[in-house]
Amino acid sequence: MKYLVVIERTENNYSAYLPDIPGCVATGKTIQEVRKMMKEALELHLKGLKEDGFPIPTPTSEAGFISTNS
Question: Which residues pair with 17 in a beta bridge?
Answer without folding.
Answer: 6, 25
